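Researcher: I'm preparing a figure for a lab meeting and need a structural model of a single chain. I don't have an experimental structure, so a prediction will have to do for now. The sequence is pasted below. Please return the structure as tokens so I can convert it later.
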Amino acid sequence: MHLLHNCADFVSARTLHAAAESAGIAVGLTIVYRTLHLLERSGHVDVVRDRSGERLYRPRPEEGHRHYVVCRNCGLSLAVESEPVERWAADTAARTGFTEVDHTVELTGVCTGCNRSQRGE
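Model: Understood. Here is the structure written out token by token.
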């Protein structure tokens, strides 16, 4: 988890594995994937997918679960207001009688910096 906290933004399992190797930590890629999966299930990381569908991870803030908008070009991610989504999920669970309801919301776009670059500014 220490290596994950040192990453500035969302990171792939492969990138995290490479960081471990660079730090002299002998760990297999399978163990990295398993550990990230356990951290996700226990609510310790947030997960988004990149353009190719690869899962990217980042430590979950102490405030809890968040949703992000992620730039499809550079990977910049910004936390967004998620209370309406959380309320909708809870209301849907209550209305349908489902319990332990999970949800995934993925917002992607092109950030201001990449948009400017595309326009040649």
